[in-house]
Amino acid sequence: GSEPMLKNVEGTEIKWKDGKCLTHKDVTQKQRGKGKNKGQVRTVVKKERQDSFFHFFTPPRMPSLDKMNEEEALRLEAEYNSDYDIAQAFRLEIVPKAVLWYTGDGMQEMEAA
After folding, report:
1. What is the pLDDT of residues 40-62, one digit of tens each?
2. Are 44 and 29 in contact (CB under 8 A)?
3. Positive or negative, the Cα torsion across 88, 93, 99, 104?
4. How far is residue 113's CA from residue 30's CA, in Å, rounded to a whole number?
5. Which long-range contacts does 82-91 make (Cβ < 8 Å, 24+ apart)?
6. Model confidence over 67-110: pLDDT tens digits?
7. pLDDT at residue 6 above 80?
8. Would you state the pLDDT for residue 2?
9. Which is more confident, 15 or 13?
10. Sign (positive/negative) of CA torsion 16, 22, 24, 30?
11. Residue 76, CA distances (Å) to 25, 28, 60, 83 in order
């Protein structure tokens, strides 16, 4: 039989409250005008990506399988395998024992095992 092949990955969009996003930071920059706007200063707000656990819920886009070389395919497979292992740990260890982790007892239980 042939090995199963990943064809699609879906994530969950997190709808952050204003000013509470942990994945991006608003960076305000002042820019001076050029040309006919010379001498004027305008303020520009850019979103800057921050390191965050919450990026896990936004999976990378699947590239076209016919445009991918073998090295890219192996890298992508390793990345998705790692994500799968993390998701399984969440499903089996973190979520069912959420209260224990919140109180700190989850770590003690893990160390005792």
Report:
1. 888 888 999 999 988 888 877 77
2. yes
3. negative
4. 55
5. 83/56, 83/59, 86/56
6. 778 888 888 888 888 888 888 888 898 889 889 888 988 888 77
7. no
8. 65
9. 15
10. positive
11. 27, 35, 9, 11
Dihedrals phi, psi of 30, to nearest 5 degrees? -100, 135
Instruction: Give the H or E element holding residue 49.
Output: strand 41-49
Which amino acid belongs to residue 55? H
> Is the pLDDT at 1 greater than 60, yes or no?
no
Concatenate the DSSP letters of all residues of 57-99 into one string. GSPPPPPPGGG--HHHHHHHHHHHHHHHHHHHHIIIIISTTHH
Q: Which of 27, 22, 82, 89 is nearest to 51 (CA)?
A: 22
Residues 6+ apart with CB under 8 A from 70: none
* Residue 36 φ/ψ region, left for φ over 0, alpha for ψ in the -120 to 50 degree band, beta for the rest: alpha
Q: Identify residue 74 by its one-letter amino acid code.
A: L
